[in-house]
Amino acid sequence: MMARRCEITLDADGCKGCGYCETVCPMNVYERGAFINERGYTPYRAVRPELCVGCMQCYYVCPDFCLDVTPDEVSR
Amino acid sequence: MDSLSTRYLRAKKIPSTACGGCGLGQVHKKILMAMDELALGVGDVVWGSGIGCAGRQTFNTWKGDNFAGTHGRVYAIATGLRLALPEDKKIIITSGDGDAFGIGLSHLLHCARRNVDITVIVADNLGYQSTGGQYGYTTPLGFVSDSSPYGAIEQNWIQNGIDILDVLRAGGATFLARHSSLEGYDAVKSVKAAIKNVGFSLIHFIYPCVSHFGPVSLKTRDIDRIFHWFKGIFEAGGVFGENFKSGIFHDAGNSRPEFASSLRSQRAEVEAGHLR
Asked: Does A16 touch chain B (CB under 8 A)?
């Protein structure tokens, strides 16, 4: 069976920790991280990327250009 | 930086100095996505910016040619550029609500009347937020701001049957749309249509301000509540009323002569001796 899986790349140095990605994600992929980056923000992390369905809502809503969501068709 | 911004924007300017949670980057991204889909390269676009949050956060981010206008004057500068540049060069302007609907409104209207081939993206944070949060031309009536501590009483441009897009349509604009920065691909489609229109196009984007409008007007710093308030502005019961919709407002694309091409045609006729 072919299922959609996505690779999520999150630039922790550029993330300002706003949390929009967590707000919009229907699959609860994101959580706030536990460290402070060089700019003084607590960046988010994709802690459950295997749940991503590729809806791209996080990509559209991330205001700081630090998210890439790349769909990848794989069998599972 | 993501792959889109790496292609189009200067690394030293991204992330911008915008507040964490500011929606301007969402607007910025949709413009880049539209350019990407239209296969526009860095050399195909000249990017102008106004003053205020919208101008400051997009100024000099573009890898290609770009310029900043003085407050409200970026439309007049763009008109000059339109006359000077080749027809296929796109001119995109990002400005704010104060810049476009206040101090620069006269310049904007004259651009619409002349049907100058530029695309204006008005990034609207519902007030003068970069100067501390004073009410502006789109602040909802009754909302508290730094300069309206008992609630804004001045009629704005987008409530009670008054709509700035109606004014621009009457002024001759050939493409008008309105969106929230929180929207997805529909907003990108509008930006693409605006860029493709050979004439004056404007998209009114409303985006969340988390530093002034949120805490002062919405009484919350909670990003989730701010997100949902802005997400709800086009829904039933939204603050601007039932007729406040997102989407394409007016599409008369390529229906009127464009200013610079009309001038070029006339010049060619004069040079050929057909006009005396």
From this structure: yes
Instruction: Compute, in degrees rounded to 10, the torsion defined by CA atoms B263, B266, B272, B276.
Output: -130
Residue contact A67–B2, C-beta within 8 A: yes
Say which of A23, A61, A65 has its CB closest to residue B15.
A65
Is B133:B145 a contact under the CB 8 Å cutoff?
A: yes
Residue B244 structure tokens: 């406040």
Q: What is the pLDDT along chain B (276 residues), one digit of tens a residue?
A: 889 999 999 999 999 989 999 999 999 999 999 999 999 999 999 999 999 999 888 888 999 999 999 999 999 999 999 999 999 999 999 999 999 999 999 999 999 999 999 999 999 999 999 999 999 999 999 999 999 999 999 999 999 999 999 999 999 999 999 999 999 999 999 999 999 999 999 999 999 999 999 999 999 999 999 999 999 999 988 899 888 999 999 999 889 999 999 999 999 999 999 887
In CATH, B3-271 is 3.40.50.880 = no
| Fold that domain A2-75 belongs to in CATH | Alpha-Beta Plaits (3.30.70)
**Inter-chain touch B25–A64, beta carbons under 8 Å:** yes
Model-level ipTM above the cut of 0.85: yes
**What would the DSSP string read from start to end of A8-48?**
EEE-TTT-----HHHHH-TT--EEE-SS--TTS---EEES-
Residue ranges of domains in chain B: 3-271
